[in-house]
Amino acid sequence: MKKIGILTSGGDCSGMNAAIRAAVRTAIRLNIEVVGFRKGYLGLMKGDAIPLDTKAVSGILHRGGTFLQSARSQEFKTPEGQQKAMDNLKELGVEGLVVLGGDGSLTGALALHRLGLPVVGIPSSIDNDIPYTDMALGVDTALNNIIYAVDCIKDTASSHARAFVIEVMGRNSGYLASISAIATGAEYALVPEREYDLAEICQQLRARFEEGRDNAIIILAEGAGHAQEISDSIKDAIGFETRVTVLGHYQRGGAPTVFDRLLASRFGKRAVELLISGNSGVMVGLSCNAILATPLEDVIKGEKRPQDEVLRLAEVLGV
Ligand code: F6P
Predict the structure, then answer these.
(1) What is the pTM of this model?
(2) Which residue, by CA, sits nearest to atom 2 of ligand 1?
(3) pLDDT value at position 201?
(4) Number of neighbours of residue 90 by Cβ within 10 angstroms
(5) Which residues are CB-neighbours of 295 under 8 A, at least 6 positions away?
(6) Strand order across the beta sheet in which 49-52 lies
(7) How many whole angstroms from 216 Cα to the centroid of ligand 1?
(8) Nearest protein CA to atom 14 of ligand 1, as residue
(9) Coiled coil where (predicted)?
(10) What's the complex ipTM?
């Protein structure tokens, strides 16, 4: 292999830049040229590639987001879009590809692998809903962002005896909500994986208010309801005044934590090593602190991470 490509696709996350840097520097050590495709699969379909050398990736390790930029592409899901990408790769002489992204992006990587392109995926999504890795890139940074915000909100909530509904990201995944609830001592984590009973929550919050507690925090995953609606429906029953905070895209940015910088560096290096040694069609993942490779086929078919244990922990410690 003489030349490989790299791209970041789907929702960005902190640590992507550090992983690109690691992949580029590993490849260059092995005398392999690297190009970066801009805006994920969109750039691949347009042949929008920039050469990446050691200098091009200096000064980015500590920066959130992705300097290659990212996008979600409907066109790439079609056989025509994928063929366009394959044609461009051939024309540019790119023989292998490293793809950073979440489940949709990894599904795209699998499609290219099936068309004969050597591909290695790096799980990158704050949702932490990708099987075969204990942690995806960006999760730890997003959690640290969330707990910083929740701690701040708790201070003001206590000063005013208020209950806050704090909405975090996760359309289909309650991971951020449940872990941040444990880490901040929130009273509730409401997640898409499990039903909840608002009448029961109201009763418990009322009891909490009558006990003289000065605040209550409900962390809501975005896929489990609308923060304002939940706040409106509990506000007259619980004693506490209620307020809502939607953390939104704040969660996805910022300098990566040490954990994410290290994970990104390990993932990036291993992805390139796998690609050039002919072990493609796989995703790198973290398992018991080792970096393992799992076939993309298994990753895409794999079971989502069970939430029961962490939710139980949040429940036992929260009320
Ligand atoms: O998949 C990552 C994620 O941050 C989800 O948690 C969230 O629902 C979604 O992306 C938001 O997507 P967008 O940035 O396109 O609005």
Answers:
(1) 0.97
(2) 11
(3) 97
(4) 11
(5) 281, 282, 283
(6) 49-52, 33-37, 3-8, 96-101, 119-123, 282-287, 290-295
(7) 27
(8) 11
(9) none
(10) 0.97
